[in-house]
Amino acid sequence: MRVLITEDNQQLAEFIQQAIAQDGHAADIAITAAQNTQLMQSWQYDALVLDLGLPDKDGLEVIREIRKQQNTLPILILTARGSVDDRIKGLDLGADDYLNKPFAIDELKARLRALLRRPSSYTANLLTHNNVSLDTKARRVTVCGENLTMGKTEVAILEYLIRNAGLTVGKDALYDAIYAMGFEVTDNAIQVAVHRIRKKLESSNAQTTINTLRGIGYILT
User: Average model confidence (pLDDT) for the chain?
Assistant: First the structure.
């Protein structure tokens, strides 16, 4: 999961970013509406955490512009505004949920997980593919109910591949999804991690395989 946090309070934005990273996901920060637009044009995000009180443009207008482009990106509003009308207006413009400031970070993460559920493969916090299950909250992988030990990066890669099962996923797409912008990794980090995941799945008799399409990417079958 890659999340865009658009919040003009740098300290709060970094706090949210760190909390999301602890769950194995990537997050970028925009301080203004202009930066929000620039990042959304440069990257593909799975969710947007949006403060309404931005310095250069009202967050409600940001929502309006996103939805005018027929962009269905899940949007979670953060607001210190006490007016119920503002919250209603945000939801009517196309936001998916809202959270009042101050808020509990665990609630924010739970609301993000709820926005990202996919009915076809997601039940509660569980992603499944064949006999492999991934608990997106506990960051735990099991095969036929037996725990499979994986590192944070391995779990994040496997989650992305399960969410895109049957589709070819390029190495660049994995980098974009897993690592926040500016995060330094070695050139073969994805390749090494995928190799480890494949070996662990094979040793646990998983009915799920990661196939490498040389020069193209990976596909989970």
Answer: 86
Phi-psi domain of 144 (left: phi exceeds 0; alpha: psi -120 through 50; beta: other): left
Is-cis flag, bond preceding 55, omega within 30? Answer: no
Q: How far is CA 138 from the centre of its chain?
A: 15
Predicted TM-score (pTM) of the model is 0.66
**Rounded CA separation 216/171 (Å):** 8
Q: Provide φ and ψ at 110, rounded to 5°.
A: -65, -40
Question: Which tokens is 91 given?
Answer: 């939801």
Answer yes or no: are the C-beta atoms of 152 and 24 closer than 8 Å.
yes
Say if residue 163 is exposed, middle or buried (CB neighbours under 10 Å; 0-12, 13-18, 19+). buried
Integer CA distances (angstroms), 50 to 2, 62, 105, in order: 14, 9, 15
Q: What is the pLDDT of residues 23-62, one digit of tens each?
A: 888 899 999 999 999 999 988 898 999 999 999 999 999 9
d(C-alpha 166, C-alpha 144), whole Å = 21
Distance (Å) of CA 114 to CA 69, 74, 218: 24, 10, 27
Question: pLDDT, tens digit, for every residue of 119-154?
Answer: 434 444 678 889 999 988 788 999 998 999 998 888
